[in-house]
Amino acid sequence: MQQSAPGCLPLLRRRSGGTFWGEAAGAAVPLASGVTGAKMPEQPLNLLFVMTDHQRADSIGAVQSGVEVTPNLNRLASAGVWFQRAYTTCPLCVPARTALATGVYPTQNGVVCNDWSGASAGNFPPLHELLAAAGYDVGHIGVHHIRVRPDLRRRVEFAFWVDSGDYRRHMAALGLDVAPEGGSRMFQREVTELQDGRLVRQWYSSTRTAVWPYAAEHFLDAYYCRRAVDWLRRPHPRPFALFLYLWAPHPPLRVPEPFASIFAPDRIDLPANVGRPALNEPAGRRASMPAQLAEGLDEAAWRRVWAAHLGLVNLADQGIGSVLRALDASGLASRTLTVFTVDHGEHLGQHAMYQKMEMYEPAVRVPLIIRLPGAWTGVSAVPVSHLDVVPTVCDCLGLSRPDAPSDGESLGPTVEQGLPPHARPVFLQYSGNATRGVIRRAVVHGRWKYVYTPDDAPELFDLEDDPLETLNVAGCPENAARLIRLHRLVRRWHRARRDWVSYESGMSALAAAGNCPRPLA
Length: 521
Prior knowledge:
Distance between the termini: 25 Å
Largest sheet: 8 strands, mixed
Strand order of the largest sheet: 8-7-12-2-14-16-5-17
Helix content: 25-40%
Radius of gyration: 22 Å
Number of strands: 22
Oligomer: single chain
């Protein structure tokens, strides 16, 4: 994927999409860059918090098929701080979003899987509650995947709440059926999944692509963005916090026009490891769900998947652009902290995998952009975590932090003054999808990533020399001491955060390491 250089994000000419949001779809967001050291306004700042789902970190600044993938987010990045090495805590929706909202690591807050009922959730105050307690009008638009106890809507008296139920009622009033013709199974694939110690057959979103049959204005995320624009156009006598959670580019890959046709499949620049597992991949990796979902696809199929996925990313970007324009038109942009991030990424065929649920960079590295009016603008390449978002927002807005445990560090000094983030290890976990199942624990420490899987071979990647993670160097003798240090680091962090996983089998695997095949010259 082509990308412009950090700090240099040119806006390219692209195809017009008509009046998707009531304006030219290709219009750029008129945002002014901040000035280092500028005096902050005395009145409380508002918060605009935007998330998409499944969007890769390398989408920011990317050009594919001659088209800029995210022109509006690129403009936001140039007017704020773009954290290029931000990581999710878990490559799965509910645990990632819950950890992000609470600032508490998944094994500590209890939500390690897609626990839709919230049975495992703990009593940890989310960011929404902190804002409401500080006198903010809090609005929610979009998907609701945060699980705390009591539930989010019982903890917070929302001034505004819009979710998928509102969208379904809106579509029904128009006489439009959101279900795909032939049923949802048409866009799913059956795989074998480990659930609570036993193998079961389960259906998950597949790589099938199609054109969505209605006008783009009726698409879910277009609806959400229009509601967000309506919110921003209201009078706001009190400071507000608007959380906008978009669904795109989450599969199924049903894409409305013109977005279905923007990216020509044969012109997409695919990463070199699409369809290719890493050398020295652990023996059990092909049994994982992402590997099963990718079975049987050739390069032409992956190109179609990329074209559909990028179309959805571009659709989300255009919606976000309409929201940012409404913020600017309201005169509130200079008094609003804006945050953009994603729950997790998407493999799109890299490592011969689809969806997320693994510890490879396409799945765990996420976009993170924070724009504080009047503050520093630039790019940071230091690894940071989703856990850092809550303390950062609290610092930037001048809010008191909760007494509950917090596993992140504030990035406020970077956002406000351009000081480099504290260089530290960033931890990740995966514990299964619907229930506890496949286990992964990982750490990113500088240029190195270590992945621990009980009873399987360890993984170690040099992200500086091998950013695509094509070669697992865990077995190389020169890395033996480093491997043990990183394993102990992972074990210490997770045990301090209520992890139930045994780390002793990993020590056996480390002791057995020593086979270090290299790729042929």
